[in-house]
Design brief:
Length: 335
């Protein structure tokens, strides 16, 4: 039975020691970063090796948003704009092109065997916040964010790629980068309603990711990832999200404690899967020791999420899509 975790690996090829560890640890899935992808043939071989290590078609994730957050880049893969570029188009056009862009990304990923994308970003930015979200957000208006995020999720699903909406219940107010430090948001519960709105509108999506952010109005003692109150009362309750819930990367500096403690805390709080990304062998061993097998309701959510991409992808003309995409952004954005 797979463990309730997702791991990265150290480089562009799987080392023998990594393969042996993954065979024994049996993580539910894997995640790729820029250090892991050099060429299409190499990336496909790595994906195959990861799945061979665990003896099944384990899900393989990537963060391919566009803009700053893109693991696949030219010259081997096309560039895509940040989320904000879609929000600058006229509303109907923005939704069409956000869906089309995500459908194109799905085709890029499917060609490598990658079947999960940590997209869309449904965070609502506010003035004065840290730029860790910045132009990754589709807009500043929650309703516009929800529409564009929905379009992107639909485009991924049409291409057979599972979307992961992030970062619940909202990272847009954070005044620190959670990769580096723990953000503390002191907004009132009423103010936070604005941040929850896009996630509430997207609550039917199959998978989501938590934020390593403390919301003092919700739980002053713990960030969302390790807060049973935030996950149970806000993410599952107020927002109504019942899909597969991933932690954000446990190796980020926002969290404290050993990696095993972080993994145990995330699962105990209500995350279904503990995500660890940096490929550090000692840290992965600690996470593996800290997590349980994926079973019960968490396993049901994982199965239901993957069922959303079980059918054949929607028909797609790549050349026609690229021409339409580039025409929509003429004079607005260029790679």
């Amino acid at each position: 039975m797979a463990r309730a975790c997702i791991f990265g690996c150290a480089g562009p090829a799987l080392a023998a020691g990594e393969a042996a560890f993954f065979r024994d640890a049996d993580p539910w899935g894997f995640i790729l970063f820029r250090r892991n992808v050099e060429t299409p043939d190499q990336a496909r071989a790595l994906v195959d090796a990861l799945r061979t290590a665990v003896g099944r078609r384990a899900p393989v994730l990537i963060d391919q948003e566009g803009g700053r957050v893109a693991r696949l880049r030219p010259p081997h893969w096309p560039a895509y704009p940040p989320g904000r570029a879609y929000g600058r188009l006229q509303p109907a056009l923005g939704e069409e092109i956000a869906r089309l862009g995500a459908r194109m990304i799905a085709a890029d990923l499917a060609a490598l065997g990658v079947d999960v994308d940590c997209l869309p970003v449904a965070d609502t930015p506010v003035p004065g916040a840290n730029d860790v979200i910045g132009d990754r957000a589709y807009a500043e208006d929650p309703a516009a964010i929800a529409r564009l995020a929905r379009a992107a999720a639909d485009g991924l699903l049409a291409g057979g790629v599972l979307p992961v909406v992030k970062h619940m219940p909202g990272h847009g107010r954070a005044r620190a980068d959670s990769h580096e430090a723990l953000p503390v948001v002191e907004a009132s519960r009423a103010e936070l309603e604005r941040d929850f709105a896009p996630f509430r509108a997207l609550a039917d999506l199959p998978a989501g990711m938590t934020a390593h952010v403390v919301y003092t109005a919700l739980d002053p003692a713990a960030p969302a990832t390790t807060s049973a109150r935030v996950i149970g009362e806000t993410i599952r309750g107020d927002i109504g999200f019942q899909g597969l819930l991933l932690s954000d990367d446990l190796s980020m500096n926002a969290l404290s404690g050993s990696l095993g403690e972080r993994a145990r805390a995330a699962l105990a709080a209500g995350c279904d899967l503990a995500l660890h990304c940096n490929g550090d062998a000692a840290e992965m061993r600690a996470v593996a020791e800290g997590v349980r097998p994926l079973q019960g309701l968490a396993a049901e959510r994982a199965e239901a999420a993957l069922a959303r991409i079980a059918g054949p992808p929607e028909a797609f003309d790549a050349a026609k899509a690229r021409a339409r995409f580039e025409a929509a952004f003429a004079g607005v954005w260029a790679p």
